[in-house]
Amino acid sequence: MQRPTRQTHSSQPSWWRSPQRLWLRRAVFQVHLWLGLAVTLYAIVIGLSGSALVFKQEIERAQRPALFHITPGGQRASFDSIIQVVEHDRPGWRVSALRGFSSDEPLTLMLRPATGALSANYRSVVVQPYTGLVLADTMRFDGVLGWLSNLHFYLLAGSKGLLVSGCMSGALAVLCFTGLVLWWPGVRRWFSALLFRPHRRWKRLNYDLHTVTGFWVALPLLLLSITGFYFAFPAPVIAVMDALTFSHPAAALKRLPAHAVSGLPSQPRMLSVDQAFARATDLLPKNAPPGYLSLASPKSSVYYVTGYYVGSAPYSSLVSVSFDARSGALLSHEDTNQQPPSRRIIQYFFALHFGSFAGEGPGGVAVKFLWVLLGIAPAVLAITGVVMFVVRKGRKRPAPVAAPLSR
Fold first, then answer.
1. Beta-strand (E) ranges in 70-171?
2. How many structural domains are present in the chain?
3. What is the C-alpha separation between 125 and 136, in angstroms, rounded?
């Protein structure tokens, strides 16, 4: 009589020792495989274009330094007079916003068509504020860097492209998570799976390049994918962040009731842009001077202004207020320093996405170089993944059966 064999731990599949034998891992592999093939082209395009845009501001500053720094001299021309001249010389265009108010930087006017649908490709006119001289007149997506920006944000397809890019970013986030699951080789081989060994055959080199690179960049790419998804679909990301940080959504924005607002006496005419800028300066903290002013229009008699805290990462620490264009009464007030944790984290999404959170010093430059390499990683993973798929399909192809020799 044969004695029953005793099962050992090694004969039973487990996540700790032999994850390759688990059906759940095989299911995750199928998701990773087919989703990866579906977003291959997008991963290459979005990664390489993102790498090219990391140093966009530095490149533009080196090409045309006069657009970023001027020598103060004399008295600044009024905003209203500059706007009047710019709109007069450009029929069919209306100034919608201003930025660049410090004494040593030019004034930038953002123009949109007076009629028709709004587009992300706005017109930008840069003016020397002391003389009124126009330094530049370009569209947002002009030039190589502008084209790359349009490609990276909108896939050259406007708002529809932004939605498609958001969905693809969500798919990349899933790939990062499933890739980490598939990387785990078991407790006995986990350390060797962290290292790339160049002295191997090309198929094994390709495999190692995919798995090792994928492990080291998975978490950073996951963060970039989440921020990319947020740019297209902010509402679900905000809701999830509120839930994870136990934040109350109503605490993010302070809207003042009509009976509680205080401001200037109501005027029959709207405040001029110069008056609105003075009002905005009074409403903002001294260490967060105005950086962006959205002009009021007859359809919406409201001025919106954003002040950026001095020394903060781009768009990460700011104060936004809105006020009535006729009375100057404060309508809303939003300060990132007073926001719940979820909104403070979200404010860093832009700086995190483009690697600008470390400032402009040597440390900031080093981080941006790392972000350039991080942008190349999706292309590397996409190409090596396709090669692995082709090799795998080649192995499963049955060998041709030789025809019998005729006598």
1. 93-99, 107-113, 123-127, 134-139
2. 2
3. 6
Residue 309 lies in a domain: yes
Q: How many CB atoms lie within 10 A of CB 307?
A: 25
**Does residue 235 lie within any of the structural domains?**
no
Cα gap 176→217, rounded to integer Å: 9
Output the CA–CA distances (angstroms, integers) from residue 24 to 180, 193, 232, in the order listed. 14, 21, 31
In this structure, the chain runs to a length of: 407
Q: How confident is the model over 42-66, as pLDDT tens digits? A: 999 999 999 999 999 999 999 999 8
Strands 107-113 and 123-127 come out as antiparallel
Closest CA to 320 of 290, 348, 342, 353: 290
- Distances in Å between the alpha carbon of 124 and those of 121, 138, 205? 9, 5, 48
Q: CA-CA distance, 250 to 235, in Å (whole number)?
A: 14
Which is nearest to 150 in space by CA: 45, 61, 40, 234? 45
Taking only the tens place, the pLDDT of each residue in 189-248 is: 888 888 888 877 888 899 999 999 999 999 999 999 999 999 999 999 999 999 998 887
3-state secondary structure of 35: helix
Residue type, 186: G
* Domain end position, chosen among 89, 112, 147: 147
Structure tokens at 73: 């001299």
* pLDDT value for 195: 87
Query: What share of the chain has pLDDT > 90, as a percent?
Result: 66
| Whole-angstrom distance, CA of residue 349 vs CA of residue 356 | 10
Assign residue 119 the CATH number of its domain: 3.10.450
User: Are the CB atoms for 121 and 129 separated by under 8 Å?
Assistant: no
* Backbone Cα Rg of the chain: 28
Cβ neighbours of residue 235 closer than 8 Å, sequence gap 6 or more: none
Mean pLDDT of 346-370: 91
Residue 260 belongs to domain spanning: 253-338
As a whole number of angstroms, the distance between CA 183 and CA 213 comes to: 10
